[in-house]
């Protein structure tokens, strides 16, 4: 849901090597950093419904910054530096891609920088695009209006919906937040395909 050009997404191996690999054949991870703005469609999905005290709510999404750690391990110092960069450049979300899982003490920095969002992924978890795997059904985030219509249509409270955890691989892939609802479309031998809905917890 972010604005990226076709050239940025589809880089040939030869071009990638020319831009990001040094003479010894090692990838220069610090050169891989980039940022992107959310599309208007994504902003709409992340804008809460108007309320009496807040008739024009701001979208809960903004510019994202992605950085690849050149260090073999990640500690407090690395995540503090990344948090400082997000704060200085006023990025809404930061994704830190590391070669190894960060220490438990380093992870304590993440809640301390709220409302700025920081997510950490291990490189090995990103080698396969799970959204394109044949066993993973299509997940689509519902906008607040669609969520409201769904609950009204079935006369439900959101707590009555089946749940999906925020640490679910597809929830992390989509960057889902607590309270959102995701539509999951599965193939069915009898119905062709059917939709189910999950509430993010």
State Rg.
19 Å
Largest sheet descriptor: 4 strands, mixed
The CATH architecture of the largest domain can be given as 3-Layer(aba) Sandwich
Structural class: alpha/beta
Q: Which residues form runs of ≥5 with pLDDT under 50?
A: none
Number of DSSP strand runs: 8
Classified in CATH, the superfamily of the largest domain is: RNA polymerase, Rpb5, N-terminal domain
Give the CA-based shape.
globular
The end-to-end span amounts to: 21 Å
Query: Strand order of the main beta sheet, please?
Result: 1-2-3-4
Mean pLDDT: 93
Order of helices and strands: HHEHEHEHHEEHEHEE
The number of distinct structural domains comes to 2
Tally of helical runs: 8
Oligomer: single chain
Q: Enter the CATH topology name of the largest domain.
A: Dna-directed Rna Polymerases I, Ii, And Iii 27 Kd Polypeptide, Chain: A, domain 1
Q: What's the CATH class label of the largest domain?
A: Alpha Beta
Beta-strand residue percentage? 15-25%
Percent helix, as a range, is 25-40%
Describe the protein's architecture and organization.
By secondary structure, the protein is of the alpha/beta class. The chain has 2 domains: 2-125, 3-Layer(aba) Sandwich (Dna-directed Rna Polymerases I, Ii, And Iii 27 Kd Polypeptide, Chain: A, domain 1); 130-200, Alpha-Beta Complex (Eukaryotic RPB6 RNA polymerase subunit), CATH 3.90.940. 28% of the residues lie in helices and 21% in strands. The chain contains 8 helices and 8 strands. The chain has helices spanning 6-9, 13-20, 40-45, 76-89, 104-107, 109-112, 144-153, 169-174; strands at residues 34-36, 64-68, 93-98, 117-122, 138-141, 163-164, 181-188, 192-200. The strands form 2 sheets. It has a 4-stranded mixed beta sheet with strand order 1-2-3-4, with helices on one face. Strands 5-7-8-6 form a 4-stranded mixed beta sheet. Strand 7 (181-188) and strand 8 (192-200) form a beta hairpin. The longest helix is centred in the middle third of the chain and has 14 residues, at 76-89.
